[in-house]
Amino acid sequence: MEPDVIQTSTLNNAEGDFSRNIIHVRITDQIKELQTVLRDRATSRSDFIFYADRLIRQVVEEGLNQLPYQKCIVTTPTGSQYEGLHYEKGNCGVSIMRSGEAMEQGLRDCCRSIRIGKILIQSDEDTHEAKVYYAKFPPDINKRKVLLMYPIMSTGNTMIKAIDVLQQHGVKEENIIVLNLFCTPQGVKSVIKKFPQLKILTSEVHPVAPNHFGQKYFGTD
Ligand SMILES: O=c1cc[nH]c(=O)[nH]1
């Protein structure tokens, strides 16, 4: 039997207006190729890591475009003045373990000394409720903008729990930018319903999430 062809879809207006919340990486043929390799079950693990790191880098670079910058003037080697920009201090990353850790290096490659916190959330074996097992953040996280890294968002339950924890540490919803590779319309809807000020930066909104991501990237079961 021919497998169903998965069509790319995005959230349509009938599903709600998420235009203020979703930031889409610009879909070029290059980005589509990276997504295709990551979805292809025939992709070897080493190719998977290589292509995932490339897509992560694109999402991270776009995430940095969302941060605040300030005007500055520098002097060039010829002694002239150049009016430029430098980033405003006060950002940090937070990865949702374990798959979010795959995005840490991409962030560090762009921001060498950025602080990165971590949250571990797992489903309770009996109740299936998302439970926080570990959370460690920079002490002044309530004053920072947070790049919250999680590559695959399916139901949105883990993301909702992670944002709850950040809010308990004083982080404002409008200071959080989710960095994501693949998310489902359902996940987006449930997260935005709870956090209407949130920004989610993604490369693809699609009904089928590549849930094998973490296992294949880290080579675990
Ligand atoms: O926090 C930031 C943001 C942009 N660039 C950096 O090096 N750090």
Your description of this structure?
GO terms for molecular function: GTP binding. Keywords: Cytoplasm, GTP-binding, Nucleotide-binding, Nucleus. With 221 residues, the chain is an alpha/beta fold. It has one domain: Rossmann fold, CATH 3.40.50.2020. The protein contains six helices and twelve strands. It has helices spanning 29-39, 45-65, 104-110, 157-168, 185-194, 213-218, and strands at 22-24, 69-75, 81-87, 91-97, 116-123, 130-136, 145-149, 152-153, 176-179, 182-183, 199-202, 204-205. The longest helix is centred in the N-terminal third of the chain and has 21 residues, at 45-65. The two termini are 28 Å apart. Residues 64, 67, 87, 91, 111, 114 line the site of uracil.
- What quaternary form is this? single chain
The number of domains: 1
How is the biggest beta sheet arranged?
7 strands, mixed
Strand content: 25-35%
Q: What share of residues is helical?
A: 25-40%
Average residue-wise pLDDT: 93
- Runs in which pLDDT lies below 50 for 5 or more consecutive residues are none
Per DSSP E runs of 2 or more residues, the count of β-strands stands at 12
Principal-axes shape call: globular
Widest sheet, order of strands = 1-11-9-7-4-5-6
The CATH class name reads: Alpha Beta
H-E order: EHHEEEHEEEEHEEHEEH
Radius of gyration: 18 Å
CA distance, first residue to last residue:
28 Å
Number of helices: 6
